[in-house]
Design brief:
By secondary structure, the chain is an alpha/beta fold. The protein has 2 domains: 129 residues, Enolase-like, N-terminal domain (Enolase-like, domain 1); 243 residues, Enolase-like C-terminal domain (TIM Barrel), CATH 3.20.20. The chain contains 14 helices and 14 strands. The radius of gyration is 20 Å and the shape is globular. It starts with a strand and ends with a strand. The protein binds ligand LD2SMVNI and magnesium ion (MG). The site of ligand LD2SMVNI has 11 residues, from loops. It is an enzyme of class 4 (lyase). This is L-rhamnonate dehydratase. Its cofactor is Mg(2+). Homooctamer; tetramer of dimers.
């Protein structure tokens, strides 16, 4: 089998969007600007879809949501020439070829995200060529169904957050991730507001559910050290991305305090990036995203590394490319899950582009044994709400 075509298309959403409400979500820009300003950077309203065709007539789909227009340029100009005419079953060789050819500039960030999109499409083809779902090529079914956590609860009015939590508690979720709306610049008033929001959500979901807390890189080491003892009473399962991804020493210091497990990884890349996080005990939960980290080929290796280090893998964002990795390893106990919403941050844009995503029921997701490849097809229903950049 040979790769005969690679197409990278940017889907740019032009439909209705829900602007960030309230203090929405702390983030890395908060140390520079006001939240209303920083929330403008917090938009993922484009997605690049990669289609790879083979001489046997198969078509595989990959995707990338980090800097999608730049990722397209990287795919068109650098990665396509490296995979054209190649056998997709040589996926380790092809992943290494793309990774090593771009080492000078691509080993972190959008370079790896572009490689991931091509790699996902290759694995979609592999599954389709043997009529097996991708997880069956990685280790098979390790769970009857995948437990998942409801992920949203951005910081709005507390009664709105409580209503949202109640809605999804009633749908059977037993794990919830919420976002903080305040950080170091908001001083003690922000500390109080952060604690109020956690208390409000915990009050609704009860003490017998998992609660995860998301900072999205919006705090710093000093502030987090002050917050951890105050948050411990709410028994969070983890505190996510308190500092920026490059502050590995900060992660390690916070994790070593052993007050609340620190999680991260959605902004880390490659097998070596995660080896560094694990060697330095920087995180207690690894959260790579398979469409960022280097693709399925790379994520599969990281799963094995995490198993050896006894650090659980709970990939960022859910979405089918991550569910196959979670299904195929005991190192991954659960998945993140964004239900389909009006387009807000953009985490939900995936649902407007692809068909095939499983819908959570009672806090579980199922992957079918009889759907080959990644199990996705391109949705036509919302095409008129996208500008497509070929
Ligand atoms: O962990 C997550 O889901 C990400 O950090 C989100 O995609 C981001 O929108 C922050 O909530
Ligand atoms: Mg996160």
């Amino acid at each position: 089998m040979k790769i005969t075509a690679v197409r990278a298309r940017v889907y740019e959403w032009k439909g209705k969007t829900v602007p960030p409400q309230g203090n929405f979500c702390s983030n890395a820009m908060d140390l520079l600007y006001s939240r209303q300003e920083t929330m403008k950077t917090f938009r993922f309203h484009q997605w690049t879809v990669v289609e790879i065709e083979t001489d046997t007539g198969l078509v595989g789909y990959g995707n990338v949501a980090l800097a999608p227009k730049v990722a397209k340029q990287i795919i068109d100009q650098y990665l396509t020439p490296l995979v054209m005419g190649q056998d997709p079953w040589d996926y380790e060789y092809l992943n290494q070829r793309m990774y090593r050819a771009t080492q000078a500039w691509g080993r972190k960030g959008v370079g790896m995200a572009a490689i991931s999109a091509v790699d996902l499409a290759i694995w979609d083809i592999l599954g389709k060529s043997v009529n097996k779902p991708v997880f069956k090529l990685l280790g098979g079914r390790t769970k009857e169904k995948i437990p998942c956590y409801y992920s949203k609860l951005y910081r709005t009015d507390l009664d709105e957050m409580q209503k949202e939590a109640e809605t999804y508690l009633k749908q059977g979720f037993t794990a919830f991730k919420m976002r903080f709306g305040y950080g170091p610049k908001d001083l003690q008033k922000g500390v109080v507001e952060n604690l109020k929001s956690v208390a409000a959500v915990r009050e609704v979901i009860g003490d017998d559910t998992d609660l995860m807390l998301e900072c999205y890189m919006g705090w710093n080491l000093e502030y987090t050290k002050r917050m951890l003892p105050k948050l411990a009473q709410y028994q969070p399962r983890w505190l996510e991305e308190p500092v920026i991804a490059d502050d590995i020493d900060g992660y390690a210091e916070l994790n070593a305090m052993n007050i609340i497990p620190i999680s991260g990884g959605e902004h880390e890349f490659s097998l070596y990036g995660f080896k560094q996080l694990l060697d330095r005990k920087a995180v207690s939960v690894v959260q790579y995203d398979t469409n960022r980290v280097g693709g399925i080929t790379m994520a599969h290796k990281i799963n094995a590394l995490c198993e050896a280090y006894s650090v659980p893998v709970i990939p960022h964002a859910g979405q089918m490319h991550n569910y196959h990795l979670t299904m195929s390893t005991l190192a991954s106990p659960m998945a993140e899950y964004f239900p389909m919403f009006d387009v807000e941050v953009g985490n939900e844009l995936f649902y407007y582009i692809f068909d095939g995503e499983p819908v959570a029921e009672n806090g579980f997701l199922d992957l079918r044994d009889d759907v080959p490849g990644l199990g996705l097809s391109l949705k036509t229903e919302f095409l008129d709400q996208f500008d497509i950049i070929e």
